[in-house]
Amino acid sequence: MTSPRRRFQTFEDSSHRKGPERVAALRAAMREAGIGGFVVPRADEHQSEYVPANAERLAWLTGFTGSAGTAVVLADKAAIIVDGRYTLQAPEQVDTDVFTVVPLAEKSPDAWIAENIAADTVLGYDPWLHTSDGVARLERAVAKAGGSLKAVSNLVDAVWAGRPPQPAGHVVLHPLEHAGESAEAKLARIREKLEAAGVDALVISDPHNLAWAFNIRGADVDHTPLALGYAIVPREGRPNLFLSSTDLSPEARTALDRLAELAPRASFAQVLGALAGRPANIRVDVATAAAALKETIISAGGKADVGPDPITGMKAIKNAAEIAGSRAAHRRDGVAVTRFLAWLEREGPTGISEIEAVEALEDFRAEGGQLREVSFPTISGSGPNGAIVHYRVTSATNRRVRPGELFLVDSGAQYADGTTDITRTVAIGTPTAEMRDRFTRVLQGHIAIARAVFPKGTTGAQIDAFARRALWEAGLDFDHGTGHGVGSFLSVHEGPQRIAKTGAVALEAGMILSNEPGYYRAGAYGIRIENLILVEERAVTGGERPMLGFETLTLAPIDRALIEPSLLSPAETEWLNAYHARVRKALEPDLDPETRDWLEYATRPIGGAA
């Protein structure tokens, strides 16, 4: 008998609503350390979004399981600051008698600190969990209040009984057929960037950049194939590579031995200090380098050049092999998602649960034979749970879908040739007129981004409003960005590109982003429509400037039952019908006859078009 496949997701609720005991233990540690407050960010030493279990300090302390947030614990009060994705989730998870939940849109962590700490308070922080810019903000906040800031060892770790160990997962090579460029060639390009910047060496502190530069993938965190560690790339000479894991495949060890000096992660600070003491001018990443790295370099007599890691921008522009892999991954994923949507239409009215939906979708992906992982925990929200932007179903929150409700499923997969991320919102039974109106307005925003044509040099912030116009016209909006960058068998959330009010980076051909406007009615339902899109050069007849546009990569039907055709313009209707025709053509050859018939019906043209 074949053993059951290990699932990539669990539904445990181990972090839900922690009581006051853990905060009391932290306060006792604060008193012993002689400080009056401590900052607990949702971060590891690399500022990663998905962190290993031993870095889930914020969840352990507060119960909040979101991917971003900051807690500040003072002697007599505490707050947790979260962004717009989590303003509904956080109050459900944390003990609000202990923590005040503060929306980031109303107050940043440093603003809350400036308003709430008493004069002469010493605020502690772990310098390995904050960037230099983050520390500077804390310094300004405490100075404004008349307090002081002090670097200390992590006090949460001191009181966290049973804290998990540092992960050390298996490390493998990312094959050239998927990477599209050798590690030697990438390192040569990196050195050219260092030469142009006038620095002696680069510290790679972002594990995503480490994976890209050395063509490796690991298993140190859930959902993203990262090998945690650091590298030092000198302008001349061999790099030093410091991995948490010593569990390397023979092929990976051989390849890395040719490229770099392999050393234990524990020796990183010592080697960095020795290099800095020559002295050397060393670039550390403004976005991910811990403040402790800057201090290590300075204390050794070197110069810390805090600026962008050039790898971040290089990694964002996908090469031909990565683009081909992404297209193949999305076609494969589209087959699985379409099978799931057909299943959902059959089974949904019988009252399937949110967990059953997650398991079914993962099974459909696994049946394709190439699934390596899910790219993030599936958001499976029925009815009011769909209004929680980053809802994660647990055994405690699991509910069944009901006729007359909307069901929102946001999911993704990791394949060796690409990373996917797709959201579909489906009507269970007959939707209301309001649901159809809101869904269609979200769809109009989605189409506006998909059809956008813009000059080279345009930033994501400049086109973000395209996704909101139809909602704004009805006095509506959504409180998250419209799109994030996506990696190539790497993180489902990859910078520096994004489509958002804060998206200051110019979009370039080869970048992959999401297109995911939404609408959320608290306590009732949520709507989001998400496809991944590839930035490509676009010729415009008679145009005077180089232009860009988007190719939609994601292939899966959009629920016609939720569309109000009278709201769509002829151009929007044409786009939708063309998209559905493309979905049919791409997916039908790999579908069983029953699902093929369902897809034919689900993607029939709107408005009688052929």
TrEMBL record:
Peptidase M24 domain residues: 327-537
Residues covered by the Creatinase N-terminal domain: 22-158
GO molecular-function terms, A-Z: metal ion binding; metalloaminopeptidase activity
Domain Peptidase M24 C-terminal: 546-606
Superkingdom: Bacteria
Transmembrane segments: none
Entry keywords, A to Z: Aminopeptidase, Hydrolase, Metal-binding, Protease
Family matches, as InterPro entries: Creatin/AminoP/Spt16_N (IPR029149), Creatinase/aminopeptidase-like (IPR036005), Creatinase_N (IPR000587), Pept_M24 (IPR000994), Pept_M24B (IPR033740), Peptidase_M24_C (IPR032416), X-Pro_aminopeptidase_P (IPR050422)
Name of the featured protein: Aminopeptidase
Organism whose genome encodes this protein: Methylobacterium gnaphalii
